[in-house]
Write a structure and sequence with these properties.
Strand order of the largest sheet: 2-1-10-11-12
Number of domains: 2
Helix content: 25-40%
Mean pLDDT: 92
Number of strands: 12
Strand content: 15-25%
Oligomer: single chain
Length: about 280
């Protein structure tokens, strides 16, 4: 007899963790309770694997994560059962890769910059101290943010109409440029958070008779594909108290800002077995 398995696919900055302080303290007891109850908590973020792994350790998570805006699903060896030929194994982790390597992304980005006429200031080209200053991260965290394997984050700030004017140039190079909470990130066209969620679900169905019920949590336009590909999509408020401009009757708009809203949704999933906080 099969039982329902719940997976919570969650964005990080401005959703699970505080937008300004990067703190996970508010959500931590609820993450721990979800895991105790047997639910999956799957990060789905623009962050690199090294960045996500630090946060996973802080929260006691040993399960898959979706990195760099859906460019890869990275899971501990042994999590996926059955045919492992579809995965790349490195250092005790299995990778299902949807995007292309960062070197390939940067080569195509260079051609975009040539057409644009100036540098778009990728994180990989900056001093780590400059990335720390731009992001508010400490130096080790800023270095992890630079160690991108499938994408490039851009430091340049421009009016929205300029970004829109570059969309066709990015597309001509097989790239997508996504606007997150702070910066734009460039990835391969084949990758996005929604594609990664769908791939995760396919992998789950191939190894388990238990149906997967999916919750999604995000805070920005960058989470559109994530929220469009889960059973129960939730949008938390941004720090200014507004919701991102995502129009879908399926998306539940949560009244709490960032991790406050995240906890509200976690309480719905946990039910009466709430943690003592």
């Amino acid at each position: 007899m099969s039982t329902l398995m719940t997976a919570i696919f969650t964005d990080l900055d401005g959703t699970l963790i505080d937008f300004d302080s990067y703190s996970s303290e508010l959500a931590k007891p609820y993450v721990e309770k979800l895991i105790e109850l047997g639910h999956l908590v799957v990060f789905c973020s623009s962050k690199t694997f090294r960045e996500q792994r630090v946060l996973q350790r802080e929260l006691g998570i040993e399960m898959p994560c979706i990195v760099e805006n859906g460019s890869a699903i990275i899971a501990p060896v042994g999590f996926w059962k059955g045919d492992i030929q579809a995965f790349v194994e490195t250092d005790g982790w299995h990778r299902a890769e949807l995007g292309k390597p960062a070197a390939d992304i940067r080569a195509r980005l260079s051609r975009v910059e040539s057409k644009f006429g100036e540098s778009l200031c990728g994180f990989s080209s900056l001093m780590t101290e400059d990335v720390a200053s731009l992001t508010g991260l400490d130096l080790p965290s800023a270095r992890r943010a630079q160690e991108r394997e499938y994408s490039e984050t851009l430091a340049i700030q421009m009016p929205e109409e300029q970004w829109q004017g570059l969309e066709e140039v990015f597309a001509a190079e097989g790239l997508k440029c996504l606007h997150g909470g702070r910066f734009h990130t460039v990835i391969d066209q084949a990758a996005d958070k929604g594609a990664a969620v769908r791939r995760f679900s396919e992998l789950w169905q191939a190894q388990s008779e238990d149906p997967l019920v999916s919750f999604g949590l995000g805070d920005s336009e960058n989470d559109r594909e994530l929220l469009e590909n889960v059973d129960w999509p939730h949008l938390v408020k941004r720090p200014n108290g507004s919701w991102a401009n995502l129009h879908s009757r399926r998306i539940e708009r949560v009244p709490g800002v960032g991790p406050i809203g995240w906890v509200q949704v976690a309480k719905q999933v946990i039910g009466p077995a709430e943690p003592a906080v």
